[in-house]
Amino acid sequence: MPQKLKHHTLTGLMVLPLFLYLLAFAAVPLFSCVVLSLTDGASNAFPSLDNYRVLFRDDQFGQAFQNTLWLTSLGVSLEVLLGLAVALVLQRLVWGRAFVRAVVLTPLGLPTVVAGVMFIYLFSSTGYVNEFLYRLGLISAPIDWVYGGWRSLGVLLMAELWKVTPVVAFILLAGLESIPETVYEAAAVDGAGAWRQFWHVTLPLLRPSLMMAVVVRAIDAFRVFELPLILTGKSFPVLGTLAYSEYYEYDNPFTSAAAATVLLAIIAACIGGYLFLMTRRPMEGA
Amino acid sequence: MSSRDPRSSILALRSSLLGLLCLVLLLGGRASAGTELSVMMGLGEGEWRVMRERIFPPFEEQHEVKVRAIQAEADQAVKKLVAMHRAGRMRVDLITQDVLRLSSLIDAGVMRDLSEQREAIPLSALPQLIQVGTFDGALYFSPYRPNVQITYYHAEKFAEYGLQPPRTWEELLAVARRFKEAEGVGRVLLHGSLDVNTSIHVMEFIWAAGGDPLLLNDAGSVRAFSFLQQLAPYLAPETRLANWNTTNTFLATEAVYLARNWPFGVNLLVQQAGKTQIKAYHGWQGPLREAHVLGGEVIGIPRGARHPGPAVEFMRYLMSRPVQETLVTALGWPSFRTDAYGTLETWQRPYFAAIQEALRYAVVRPHVTGWAEVDRALVGAFREIVYGGQPVEPTLARYHQQLQKARQRLR
Amino acid sequence: MKRTRWSFWWHLGSLPILLLTLLPVYLMLKISVSPPAEVLTPHPTFGLHHVTGEHWKALLTSGALWPPLLKSLLVATWTMLGAIALAAPAAYAIARLPQRWKYPLLLSFFASRMIPEVGVALPVAVQFLRWGLEDTQLGLALAHLIRTLPFVVWILAGTFETIPVALEESAQVDGCHRLQILWYVVFPLAAPGVAVAALFAWLESWNEFTYALYLSLTENTLPLQTYYYVIRGSWFDAATYATFLAVPVMLITAALQRYLKAGYLMGALKG
Predict the structure, then answer these.
(1) B150-293+368-410 falls under which CATH superfamily?
(2) What pTM was estimated for this model as a whole?
(3) pLDDT above 90 (res B396)
(4) Three-state secondary structure call for residue B279
């Protein structure tokens, strides 16, 4: 049995640094954030729901809440669809494979802020998209893209898609490449055409990859920050930028922490709910 | 998978790690300097260039110090300084700070009392700029430069439609309506970015109607907001993103034809972008008077600064006549000293005249604890009334309540 | 047979992908070399009509070009090294754990990725200030690790899981002790997965904005400097800086795309 004890000690020692690190730098600050959100800013009384009350009364918060949910749900769905399309193309390429892969990877290497800069130039009222539409004769007065509403949502979605699709494409590509050729051959023998093969063979086998892509992306998508900050500003608030402006402009770290806590709660609820639903259904396997 | 794959990956991994480590060791170290004066300012690239090339070197030579420049916007500067002060690690020796962003620093006790430096302030100084740096009778900030927003307009477009730059609110409404009807999209811009920029513009409208932004429900405020609501349909859509920075872009790309903004845009628009058709004047007046928020910057020294001696010297240097004249000439900044005459280029003169004229109507924003709450109320009212079309009086009454409650709690 | 018939369409499908990915980069390049008249107008041009080097010259002589680049490079490297050093041993240990321990543990580590940076950055900044870590590369790397570690542990745990225990056991029978096994048996096989995880950690840090925003005082990182150009700069500064970044990034990704084999991610997927 000393061998086993030694084994467990070694295991413990290997996991310990990571565990301690996450405790100190993730758990403790998070705890501070939640505590801060429950502290009354003026009187320092604890616990107090005052910050949340102020926040919920503010209609900017309601807007930010909705915007975050819309942006995430539409964003993740589109990213998975587009990522799947790109992954399918990448899988079947024969000529120019390295070149296309290198190009597709480029947005990954550019900071999000830089991607945002590009889209500012594209979608400003005298930007390239408006100019393109104008030259095609489709519009005569410039369209206001980034000044709130569904158009701003669209612009943000496009910017995010540009930046993030490579990640999703690669996760799905991994999944696609792991499906053995024999499975397709068997399906072809059974008389299944390309579309049926895709629907009944590829997609079910791709399920773990798709789930992983959704979870990975959703966690990050809820916390969208840089793109709304520089593309749409206050005209399309999201919870991340709201929390930031509460602290930065209104000097109120308490309501800032409250907004961040609400964001955390949404993320936990959505991810938890999604995983619960997905793992309850029986796996369809080949 | 061939057995070569893992090995070549290992080789790649090892060699890239080694390469990166070498890079890190070579470049990671930072050289130490002699006496280093850390100066925090919020400037654009062109302005920093003038500082680095013309303002810093003479001081550095004369006093044998190295000036280390730290770029921080006004809000950022407040956060950093308060954080450093609370942690007892003040790394900044001198700051130039926006006059509209001083109260947080004072409330947190960050700044050093400079009352003994009062005699260093020249007699030719603009009294309002000294007033703005004085809190409870003590001087915390020395004057540096006054600033005021001027109104830019696209002269060619105005001429095309036979319009004059508006001098009153009625004319402003007429101009906005004319552009909207002729071109199908609004061409008149206000700072509607729903932050401090907006509250400045709103304050100017309120003052011009004789109201008090700290009350929000008096007759002047109601008048101002009613007018803004009337103006709303004819405003440019860019208003939602317009702040002191983006306004220049909108003017330069000719997306808007009339906009009020700080004068630094003159250098960008006329000198850099060559848009000579964009001219400026002092602005319009409301029912009661013309009012502009007095902006600008003042100089302060934080408590616990590591080199207070050189910092005071640098402060005096910045206030000195030669430096002030350089700032006028190179950056087009009006000086706080009436005896500093820079040499202006011909193209600069009309804009400078507009600035001087607007300064005559400058109003000092009162010192009040928790100005952030006032900002919040002004911005909220603007959002609901101008963007949301809500009825003016009930909305203002509500914000009045909210503001009174918030200010009570802060006392 | 079916594959070659569809092959043409799939190859054609790569064209819009290329176009949409490269178009923004091209436009940045165009703006960075265009005279003001072509950009600051209600109707900008698309082609390269007049080319000027004035914006590049201004950027290159401003002295604000290399320091942020350097800071970002160094912080990213520290983050990558730290991530591997902290995560690899833990991931190995976790991979060898029995099922009922493994998943809750991995899940709890992964849950820490859900933390919004805007909420946590302030307490972290306050604490770092007390420790004198504010505005240092080390401090920023430590903050970046908060984001990166969970994912790296996840990828590496998956990687180590694919290495059969039987291999280690047979090495043990041959008389090697634990460390030798790790170095000569486990590490070579795990190397591709470690490479992917390391690259991922590096990219995350390179891209990171929020912690840098709260933790930097005098030295900006690359994203922060770009942000400065957006909120403060002239129109050409931001575009020129973006192009300055985009071109080397494209070259590097072209060189590295060989190593980013999608298969290495499969290990993580099996988890």
Answers:
(1) Periplasmic binding protein-like II (3.40.190.10)
(2) 0.87
(3) yes
(4) strand
